[in-house]
Amino acid sequence: MAFENLSERLQKALKNLTGKGKISEADINQASREIRLALLEADVNFKVVKDFIKQIKKEALGKEVQESLNPGQQVIKIVDEQLTKMMGEEAVKLNKAPHIPTIIMMVGLQGTGKTTTVGKLANYLIKNEKARPLLIAGDIYRPAAIDQLRQIGQQLNVPVYSEDNKDVAQIVEHGLNQAKEDKNDYVIIDTAGRLEIDEALMDELKRITEVAHPDNTLLVVDAMTGQAATQVAEGFNKDLDLTGIVLTKLDGDTRGGAALSVRAVTGLPIIFTGQGEKLDALESFHPDRMASRILGMGDMLTLIEKAQQDYDAKEAEKMAQKMRENTFDFNDFIDQMDQVQKMGPLDQIIKMIPGMANNPALKNIQIPDKQIAHMKAIVYSMTEAEREDPDMLNPSRRRRIAAGSGVPVVEVNRMIKQFKQSKEMMQKMTSGNMKGLGNLPGM
Ligand code: GDP
Fold this sequence. Notes:
By secondary structure, this protein is α/β, with parallel strands linked by helices. It folds into three domains: 4-86, Four Helix Bundle (Hemerythrin (Met), subunit A); 102-295, P-loop containing nucleotide triphosphate hydrolases (Rossmann fold, 3-Layer(aba) Sandwich); 302-439, 434 Repressor (Amino-terminal Domain) (Orthogonal Bundle), CATH 1.10.260.30. The protein contains 19 helices and eight strands. The two termini are 24 Å apart. 40% of the residues are buried. Bound molecules: guanosine-5'-diphosphate. The site of guanosine-5'-diphosphate has 19 residues, from helix 5.
């Protein structure tokens, strides 16, 4: 999980402040030292860290007291604001061309996730804008790349333009003509990568740029490479007019240094982050939400957006209503489980809920498919009346259900307990008392 270590360390540094009625300069200095170390360990650029700490100290010491927040909360607010600023403040969207198609060119080193990201982006545009993209296979040196893109195209039901031609600029030109004929609204161009930046690669990318005039030139960088990612970005940006960055493999990067430094070092905005290998594992990047995730305050907005992308809106409203009215039953539990499975890995989802990110009980939580299958079997072994009214599940009914679903009684008991707990949690959330700073852990 991204930022795990940083998140823990920052929260620890700040926790010491939250209980205090009054904060001295020594307290701020102590917290600043810990924050500085945490950032350096997360592989954030040295200069970026220096500026960050300077700013935190200046703000924390000079801040007028806000009545609604205690001193510790105020420092957290300052750190939250500065983290947001460091990552770029506002979310940046893709540039749109005045006429279709909007052209997106992907560049980056080999293995960073370029081809996968072409697919993820197509999927994102289809889901969010009902787009009709065309993909152009411009990585002709790695034969597998063309097949990989074709497979992605098939999976998404999106056309892929490829050609047996050594001149990539020509392929791109032909692909664009095809898109114009077919009235595709987006064209996403995959390009070749190398293990490191070289002149031949840059020349080829420049030639493609001259033919395609992309509205967006996105550099794909691997978050796991930490600060090296910022150097790669500077290298590419020297020769190409990059418009933004896609930071991939954030799911595997526990440090997060690249995400935190790349904007400040290069001035380029992160537009998307890749959070897994699957085609739906792409998120638009919002500095404020990311800061809040790092500080363990959750990210309800992204969660809601994910839900909107993958949920049936009517279905979601129906569920919300049931939670409010407390009529959520086992049938709904199964429906919910299906919906949540569609949204992505559960450990990532849960951490977006405020207050859940640091819950030690949820650390590394995973619900294997097998367990989900068991849960479903248990519900299917209940009568309709039992599903609607879990309170009637007495021991003899539980034994019958266990026998029917082929699992031990303890598992049935555990599942019923879990159901009751999640029902309670959902009620708390829908009644709105988990929002805001006031519910930060330890406050
Ligand atoms: P390319 O050489 O830049 O085109 O890279 P590929 O698209 O072939 O990706 C290289 C590897 O990285 C593949 O195994 C992908 O599944 C994996 N990958 C790409 N994006 C992500 C991501 O966001 N998270 C994770 N965990 N893996 C990713």
